[in-house]
Specification:
Rossmann fold; alpha/beta; five-stranded parallel beta sheet; 3 domains
């Protein structure tokens, strides 16, 4: 390991045990977070709109009454007057890219199979209602509206609700409102934080509950989603944003550095890292980061993120690099190597980006893929958000007399093994007059 720089370089042979673990869990802080969020959820369940107003005043210093928890058509019209034509065009562009990709996904999913008198068909049906959380506060994320609401609408969800925090005047950011209108959102609720997740899950006087809650958010939002998941569906566990870059000796250190910086600006708990087979490249990236960070916007936040959670690992072979990459299972994985396409077939990640012209910001805004992705290693078992997440798969089975007769002897054997004799009698009855 080399010290004295913004980011450390590790030789793969010298990695400490558990190197790939994300931020170490502070058990006391985690317990306090759970207690705090549970209290918020319980208060929303018991006090409804009144609790939402109290929390908005407490956390967002917002001033409004229960009659204005929902955004009105007049407020959306006003929002259009506060945004530029270029911003509207960019949102429409993103919506179009996402729509094309999601429609193609759905067109390839309905299946029919016929096997000796038994016809099985799988069809898709939309969930009745979904809630989309869109972060707010000091930042604005119209892209999160597009990434959550558009796939839901493509899936045919009849009721899509967006929850987003307000400013001190009780107003949702105009770009979030415009994006919601463009994407066909049915309701926008002026509520953020864990309290909004509780409202979506359990309802209040003015907010009907939904069947599923999706979207990125703070640790409070993530904890709230986890806690309500016993009562409503959620999309996936998620946490601080991540990029891992897998590179060989031919990769461009400058581009890798810019990509790591762009990810680190998400927040001081974001992860930006490099795994490479080239010690020379590792040193170049280490030096380039130190040089570039001095002049970039948000440099203090980026510096803290890279210092705390950034890393560079040098491996002896590409096979070892692939193995370590898959242990980490990053949210975003960039592959900058001569054989990137071949390597991609072996890799595990929420999203894989191939080549020097496929940076994470492309997938965030313009590729048509979704940027709501599993983090914290959950790419091992979860996928990125898509129209599939807003649908239920339903199988329809139709069998002829001949088809049932062909399988009844096999069914009899299994029902005897499982001591469920009446299961077989239900089939046998169809052949007894």
């Amino acid at each position: 390991m080399q010290n004295g720089s913004i980011i450390n370089i590790w030789e793969s042979k010298q990695l400490p045990f558990g190197w790939f673990k994300r931020q170490q869990v502070d058990q006391k802080a985690a317990a306090e977070l759970e207690t705090t969020v549970k209290a918020i959820i319980d208060q929303v369940k018991s006090d409804g709109d009144r609790a939402l107003i109290e929390f908005a005043q407490k956390f967002d210093q917002a001033k409004f009454t229960s009659t204005s928890l929902k955004v009105t058509p007049e407020e959306i019209k006003e929002a259009y007057s506060k945004v530029t034509k270029e911003q509207i065009a960019a949102i429409n562009f993103m919506k179009q890219r996402i729509s094309v990709f999601q429609k193609q996904l759905l067109h390839q999913t309905e299946v029919k199979a016929f096997n000796e008198g038994v016809m099985v068909q799988t069809i898709l049906r939309p969930i009745e209602s979904v809630g989309c959380y869109v972060p707010g506060g000091q930042a604005v994320y119209p892209s999160s509206v597009v990434m959550t609401a558009v796939p839901a609408k493509i899936a045919g969800v009849p009721r899509v609700v967006v929850c987003s925090p307000t400013d001190a005047e009780g107003k949702v950011n105009p770009l979030v409102l415009v994006a919601s209108d463009i994407c066909g959102v049915n309701e926008v609720i002026k509520v953020g934080g864990a309290q909004s997740i509780a409202a979506l899950a359990y309802g209040t006087e003015s907010i009907k509950p939904v069947r599923k809650v999706v979207g990125p958010g703070s640790k409070y939002v993530t904890m709230a989603k986890t806690m309500v998941s016993q009562d409503v569906a959620i999309d996936m566990p998620a946490g601080p944003s991540e990029v891992l870059i897998l590179a060989d000796q031919y990769a461009d250190a400058r581009l890798i550095s810019y990509d790591m910086i762009s990810q680190a600006e998400h927040g001081t708990d974001s992860i930006a890292a490099l795994i490479t087979t080239s010690k020379k490249l590792a040193v170049q990236v280490q030096e380039e980061l130190g040089r570039l960070i001095v002049g970039v916007p948000r440099s203090e936040k980026i510096f803290e993120s890279l210092k705390k959670y950034g890393f560079i690992i040098v491996c002896d072979s590409i096979d070892e690099a692939v193995e370590l990459t898959n242990q980490f299972a990053a949210e975003h994985l960039e592959v900058m190597a001569n054989d990137a396409k071949m390597l991609a077939e072996k890799l595990i990640a929420g999203l894989i980006l191939i080549g020097p012209y496929s940076p994470v910001p492309l997938s965030d805004y313009a590729s048509g893929t979704n940027h709501v992705l599993p983090t914290g290693g959950f790419a091992h078992s979860f996928s990125g958000l898509s129209a599939f997440d807003f649908m239920r798969r339903v199988s329809i089975v139709e069998c002829s007399r001949e088809g049932l007769e062909k399988v009844k002897s096999q069914v009899k054997v299994i029902t005897e093994v499982e001591n469920l004799p009446n299961h077989y009698k239900a089939i046998e009855a169809r052949f007894i007059k």
